[in-house]
Structures are given as C-alpha cells and as structure tokens.
Predict the 3D structure of the following.
Amino acid sequence: MSRDVFTAVVNPAAGAGSAPDRIIRVARALREGGAAVTVSFTRSLGHATDLAAEAAVRGHAVLAVGGDGLVGAVAAGLVGTGAELAVVPAGRGNDLARAVPLPADPGWAAEALRTLPARDVDVAEAETQHGDRVVVGGVYTGIDAAANDLANRRRLPRRPIAYQLAALAVMARWRPVGYTLTVDGEPVPLTGHTVVVANAPWYGGGLQVAPTASLDDGQLDLVTVGALPRHRMLPVLSALRHGTHLGLPGIAASRAREVTIEADRPLPVYADGEPLGHCPVTVRVRPGALRLIGAPDPAGR
C-alpha cells in the first residue's frame, strides 16, 4: 500500500522548539516521494484535536508531531473515524513513539509513513470532574504524577533519570495515600504511593511501568505501588527503567476494562504526560477505536 495525502499536526514548542525542523525534513522527503503534505501548527491541545478532526474529514492520514500530550490530543480528533494516525516523535518524553518507532533518517521515515501497515488499537477515556480526555498511553496519580508536576515546573529533560530524581525529591515529604479503587465494578482498598492505568508500556520518558501492556488487547493494565518505606522505593525506581519491578514486594499488576480511582486527599492526575485535574478519575478502555500506522501485529504477520 502507499499513502499519498497527509496532514501534519505540529506542536511548534515541542522538543525545545525542534519539532518544526523535524517535520520540515520529513515533509520534504514525503513530497519528493510524490505525497501531498499539509503542515498545521497548533495553538493548544484542543486546537490539535480540531485540526486532526478536520484532516480526517478530508481523508488524510494524520501525523502527530510533538510529545505524548499532542499524540493524545490528535487521537481525540480521530477516534472512531477510521483515519490513520502516525507518531513522529519530537517531544521530551516520546513514550508513545516507543510502541511504533519511526526511523530517525527523514527519508527512511517518509518511506515508513507511506508504506507501513496500520492496525486498530485501543484508547482509554479518562473522566474527571474537570472534563474528559482521550488517552493513548496511560493515566497515573500519586508520587509519579507529583514528580511529573515537579519536572514540568523545573523544565527538567524528559528522561528516566530526571523523572526518578523528581520522584526522589517528592518522596522526601510524601506520605502514603488511602485509595479506593473500583476495578470493573469491584471495590479494592489500597494504601500506597501510586496507581497507574496503562494502555501502553512506557511513561516518564522511557520507564516501563506496564511492561506487559498491549495497545490492542481490549484491556488496560493496572499497576499499583503499595505503602513501601522509602528505602524500599529506591529499588522500584531503579527497576522501572527495565520493567523488572513487577516482581518486587509491594507492586501489584492486573488487567481491567474500567478503573475508578478515589483518594483520601487531593491528588493530581496526569494522562499522556499532561495534567488532567485531580482525583477522582474513571478510566475505561475503548477497544479498537484508533487506526495507528506501524502498530505491531499481535499475530506476528
């Protein structure tokens, strides 16, 4: 197959302003290969959703050029339309791009965008009192969301070590949270540090929080960290880099189609690296709602 018409939805501030240069080079290679490319710069996440929806109506394949938050916003404009999405990483974290990597070389990236197969993948919908959001990667609240807050305020590079340093800084004053989880209708009390509802494996700039998560299994991965003492949290933070934390004491993992998270104090909630408001939050899966270019074939074809 060959795709010939694209709209690139670009966050011009992504990657410390490097996103425009990235798409200029990829768009040039696409045009040299005979494709038509419209490049649209976003003013906000809501604007990105609108641009994507308009491109879907025109029958374009859509390139999300930026970080994870932009990918989620673009996906919100495409779910249920059948329009195809590709992720062109240009942000600080690029966690979603790890699931569907493109070649770094612009020419090879253009060839991949034109010819790679697309598959139906799941998204999540996160609902809070502040509004709803389509989420491709994951939703999280607890130490990790507080660390994300700190990293954003200090403009730390979105890398595992920076995220882990932010988590250590937060941990110095942190106390365990009394959570009430409702997992597929069943109440689950938890005293702990964090709750993650993941559709994809990575967050925090390359941390494999949910290493068994799949984009197309019709389920969400629920990962929780219990009320571990500080000295036992350090091995967890280290193991997150390699996705080996699931075997450690205090870590629990399961799968669900819908999870509601309530907490005994106000906690920030993050989704795809962007603030979503505060608990409570309900996250539910929408199976096969998004058409993603380069998504892995579960059958290995």
